[in-house]
Every structure is written in structure tokens, then in C-alpha cells.
Amino acid sequence: MARPSKAFRWPRALAEALLLAPALLAGPVHAADASASAAGAVLGAAEPSLAGGKGQDVYLDVTLNGAARGLVHFGDRAGQLWASAASLRALGFVLPAGGADPVALHDLAGLQQQYERALQRVTLTAPLTLLKLPETTLTVPGIEAQPVSAAPGLLLNYDLYGTRSTGAGGAGALNAFTELRAFGRWGVVSSTQLARSNHGGVDTQQQPRTVRLDTGWSQSWPDRLLTVRVGDTLTQALPWTRATRIGGIQIGSNFALQPYLSTTPVPSLLGSATLPSQLDLYVNGMRQYNGQVPAGPFQLNTLPSISGAGNAQVVLTDAFGRSTTLNFSLYGTQQLLKPGLTSWSVELGRVRQNYGLVSNDYGHDPMLSGSWRRGWSDTLTVAAHAEATRGLANVGAGAAGLLGNAGVLNGALAASSGTDRHGTQLNLGYNWNNERFNVGLTGTRTQGQYRDVAALSGALLARASGSATVGYNAGEVGSFSLSYLYQNYPGQAASRYVSAGWFKSLGRQATLSLTANRDLTDRKLYSVFLNLSWALDARTSASTGLQRDNAGTQLTASASRSTPSDGGWGWNTQLRQGGGQHGAQGEVNYQGPYGRYAAGANVVNGASTVYGDANGALVFMGGHLFAARQIYDAFALVSTDGVPGVPVRLENRPIGSTDASGHLLVTPLNAYQNNKLGINPMDLPADLRIDRVDAIATPPDRAGALVEFGITPVRAALVTLVDAAGQPLPLGSRVTVNGQAGNAVVGFDGETYLDTLDEHNQLTVQTPAGRCGAPLDYRKDTGGAIPRIGPLRCTPETRP
């Protein structure tokens, strides 16, 4: 290739000199080093000349599809740019092997170029078919849970319910449900029991009795998604299996320990941007994500926020305001696990029998059960289950598959064997839904003498069962539903039921519904129910209904006012007439900070019953006893170091103030989630030192966390210091209180803020002229404000 003429060699020399200037300033540079330095700074700098016969070599600042790519060596031939194939490939261009080298940019089909010779730069815009750019992966940021914290304590939940029938032969009953729970870093121990006491009535010999329900210990490890339970528990069930109540041990995964973890497949939305663009993701019309993408292909991994079939739109807006919309079809379902995620559980124990009737009735033979699920791919989740006891072994496998946007198909096959009894069970199901339609089909059939462990305890297993549900939302016309249920148990006639319904909103405050049911086995049994309800305000509602069945026609009317979640009164009433029943019911209830209380009466055909209910909780934690509403989830104890009357907020909502001991029990909270607690320092006196005003409480399940805000009362004052002549001490002079080092300095007008004072103090001040001292007797402002003391004369220290 011809070298450039002498007239055009100076631009290249000047560019090389500018590029090598930093290295030359640093010291001597060898030729090899200079060549390497230039080659590293300019793409193609070490290549032969590209000027051709009458052109010149130029070094241009390149912008490719909106991204700055630095300096690149080109040849300028009569205003047309040429570049080496190696340089173009390094920029990301896809060139055929064995093609011309160098390459004229105007020969690249679809490439747009804006060459600004005076500014020594070129802007290139190439179709993505010419480029091979790296793919950008975008992930919607998730929420990171804070470390779980638990403090030791005791809790007693109670629910007392009593009834009394009036009239001759009236009977009364008192029931008490209690749960005693101990918790700490070592886990949770819980025991529930039910006590009953009946008197009067036909059975006057019945004695009070207490039945233990469940007792157990559990411990969880959120980082491993693992929970261990020892005591009374339920085995894990899959769609085609039944849970069994046992006394023993259970070890298994628990996704509730990481509530921010996505367990279902995450859809990947693929696209490409010609220029750097702003990306907006819309799912069913609602924006879910906003971000930036460079030029080139991209992949957006987003959390599914829909159930069933839906549509996603990715809108790309480039720097020139031009928008491009990409449409995707999605299907979200909780039946699938994302690829590689496994759920499992293993149980060993004895079957619990006569639950709720007998405290300690367990089967003689131990049983072993195990369940396993794994996300095989984005569209397939496989599962297996096995259980065994003396004389019985049961094993099965199943899968759930996503059929694109056509729904989810699932199925399982299980077999049992033991004591000359063998059988199989087949389960199939299908469901699909979108914004308007929903379809659900499921069916199970057994062959031979199929059994599971629960069947050995007397829980009948249906020979065949099935259900079908179809729903349609017709918009302004309303919503329609149709369902069918079939069940066939051993020794019983098959049962078949069909029901249809219609529901419509009448404006924003009223609804109208119609439901019809029929027994297809005994066609004499049917019911039709028409109901109209309307909301009078945010808490008050009323309804009226007409029911027609084989027993006659019945009219109902009711009105209610819900109890406020933050406490207050509520009530409900109901009237019934017809169908062989004539009566009324009324109740008034109150929810306070320490529990919920209700009283009511029910009259049916002249017989009346009055009842009352009281439930709440007692918590012993942090050395103090607290009364609260029933606590079934997590909670927190807020401590302000003994400072009473501190207003506390939960998620920026006022929830109460600390008591005389500086504590407030906050309930309920969400277990293993970030619950934001805070205090407003503007509501507190000025003479308090506050370590923090916001805190995140992340308690474990059924336990409490201790949240300390670190509020310390201090003796604080704004003190004015003057010298012997009555002039303010110099700005910046350092003040020491009672010989203790601190950071207090004198400000303007000789004022300094001190918050480590005792009742009697000695101040020492280091001024530019030397040290001086002043005594200070603290006096508290009766209005709660920080007192202003002074001016105090600071006497210079005498030198020995």
C-alpha cells in the first residue's frame, strides 16, 4: 500500500506525539514501548497506512450506536472513511471471512455515518445485524431481608367462650382455648389445649375435661431454608397425597423463611436496542420496572406479578425520543418451582388418633414419610412422595408442566402394597386463567385396594373424585361461574353436585349475587340464593337475601359495623324468617389494646341463647409482663431505656407510646420480613440523647424481637462564657467539663452547647491566650426546654 504524501504525514505525527506525551514526560521511552503505548490507546494505531494513493491517515473519536469507543485509525480518501477489518471487528462489526481489507465504510449496508472532519470525530449508527455486541442482563432488584433477631420470652394466648340457653332445661357451657409458648434463639416451644365445662341440659353427668391438642418444638435456619419440628406436626402433602397428623420429628425446607425469595420461574424478556435507551416494563398495563440499556441485545429477568395468562410490554425510548414497543405473552403460576430449586420434607413418628378428643392417643407402629419437589426447567417441575409403616408401603411420582400460554397440566401415579393388598392411584389436573376466564379440572381414581397411612387410622380414601370449575368475567354484565363435584367413597353411594353463580357490582357500594345448587343424586335437594348487599360507609354494610330450597322459602336481612383494626366498637345483627326457622341474632364487640371482647344473643323458633367471648394474650419479655391482643405471628418489644411516653411508628403509622417503664409491645409483625419501626424526635423533650430514630425488626415466626432505640436523658445547657473584661471568649476555644475530654467548642457570642453536665460542674476552657475556668451549677428548665446559663466569667488560671 502506498505511503501518504509528505504534506499529510504531519497529522499522524501530531496524533502520535499527543498520545505518547504522558509517557515521554514520565521518562525515556523505548521504541517498542512507544509502539505498544500507542497501540493500546488508539485502535489500529500500529497498522499500515490507510490513506491510499491521495488520502491521509486520520485518528477519529468514534461513537458507535450512542456509545463512545475511543480513538480509531481510519483512512480519509476524498472524504470517504476506510478502516481495517481488524479494527471494525474489534468495534463489534460482523464481517465475512476473506473479504476486502481495508473496508470502505460506505460499502457496509445500512451503516449511517456522520463524519465531522474539523472536530476529528465520527458518529456511526449501524443496524444490529451488522454488529455482535455483548448481551446486557437486567434484573429487577429484590428486597434484602435483615438478619433475624429473637429475644427470650413467654407468651400465653387465650380464648374464653361461654354460652347459656334460657328457658326450661337450659344448658350452659364454657370453653377455653389456650396456647403457652416459650421462645428464644433456641427456637419455639408451644403447647395448645382445649378445656370444656358443660352444665345443665340433658346430660347433667358430664364432667369438665381438658384435652391437649399440639405440643412441639421448632427451630429454623433462614439462610438454609430449613426448619426442624419435634412433637405434634403434620406431614407435608402434595396435590395427590394427604397430610397425616403425627407425633414425631419433621425436617424439611421452608420457603417462608425467606419471604422475598422468588420460588417460581422468572420470565426472561429478550430484545435489542439500536441506541442506548430507557427501558420501561409494563405487565397488564402496570409499570413494573424502569432502567437503562446500552446498544445491543438485552435480557430482562423480572419477578412474575401475575397469576395466569397475561401480557408484558417493553417500551424502549432512545435519546432522540423515538419509542419502540416489544410485546410478550406471560403465564404465571405458583405450581412450578424455578429451575434448580428443591423443596423437601421428611417425617418420622406415630400417627395421632382421635385428635381433639383424647390427649395422648398415638398409633403403635411408627411411620416414615417423605416428599420432594424440584424445578427441572422453566416449564417443568417434578415431584415424588413415599410413606411406609408396618404392613404398608406407598410410593408415587408426579409432575406439573406449563403448556405455554395454554395453562398448567399436572399428574401423578402412586402405588401401595402390603398385607396382600395392592392398588394404584391416578391423579390428573389442568387449570388455565387470564383476566376474564378461568378453568380448573382435577380428577383422582384408585384401582384395587390402594391405601395410604391415613387410611389405616380410619380416614376413608375416595375410590374416585373429581371437580370442574369454569368462570367468566363479562365486565359490565357481571361474573359467571359453573362448577361440578363428584365423590365416591367405599360403602357409600356416589355424590354429585352442580352449582352456578352470578355476581355483579352495582356501582362502587353495592353488589348483587345469585347462586344455585343441586344434588344430582337426590334431585329433590336444591337451593337458590339471591343476595343484595351494599356498603353504607367504610365500616358499615347491610344486606338482604332470599333463599329457596326443598324446605321452603327464607328471607334474611343483616347489618354490621366492623371493628376498627386499631381498636374500637363494632356490631352485627341478623333476622331470619321462613323455611321452618324464625329468629334473630345480635352481637356487640369491642377491640382494645389488650384483647377482643364480644357478647350476643341468638333466638331460633322461640329458644334463645346468650354467649360471650374474650380473647387476648399475656407476654412476659424483657423482665416485664404485657397484655395484648392474641398473637399468632411475630411481634416486637420496643425499649426506650426507661423513657415513658415516646410515640412509636410502624411503617410510618402511629401505633402507640411507651409505658411508664419505657416499653411498647408492637403486634402483629410479619415474620422474617423487614418491619420498619421508628420514633419522631420532634415529639420528645430536648434534653434527650437519641442513638437512632429508625430500626428494622425482623423477628422469627411466633416469636418476638427486642428493638432498642437508645434514648438517654441528659443534663444539657446552652452556656455563654465571657472573659475577665466581660467579652465573649474567642471563637473555637475548647471546653472541658469536669476534666473529661470532649468535643465542645465555643461558638459565636461565646456560646457553647454542653450535654454531659452534673448538678455541680467545673468548666476548663483552652483559649488562644491560655486556660481559664468557671464553675457551673445546673438548673433544669421547668418547661422542658434546654436552659440558657450565663454569662459565666471564665477566670484565667494562675501559673505557679
Automatic annotation (TrEMBL):
<feature type="region of interest" description="Disordered">
    <location>
        <begin position="547"/>
        <end position="587"/>
    </location>
</feature>
<dbReference type="InterPro" id="IPR000015">
    <property type="entry name" value="Fimb_usher"/>
</dbReference>
<dbReference type="Pfam" id="PF00577">
    <property type="entry name" value="Usher"/>
</dbReference>
<feature type="signal peptide">
    <location>
        <begin position="1"/>
        <end position="31"/>
    </location>
</feature>
<dbReference type="InterPro" id="IPR043142">
    <property type="entry name" value="PapC-like_C_sf"/>
</dbReference>
<feature type="domain" description="PapC-like C-terminal">
    <location>
        <begin position="718"/>
        <end position="777"/>
    </location>
</feature>
<dbReference type="InterPro" id="IPR025949">
    <property type="entry name" value="PapC-like_C"/>
</dbReference>
<dbReference type="InterPro" id="IPR042186">
    <property type="entry name" value="FimD_plug_dom"/>
</dbReference>
<protein>
    <submittedName>
        <fullName>Fimbria/pilus outer membrane usher protein</fullName>
    </submittedName>
</protein>
<feature type="compositionally biased region" description="Polar residues">
    <location>
        <begin position="547"/>
        <end position="576"/>
    </location>
</feature>
<keyword id="KW-0732">Signal</keyword>
<dbReference type="Pfam" id="PF13953">
    <property type="entry name" value="PapC_C"/>
</dbReference>
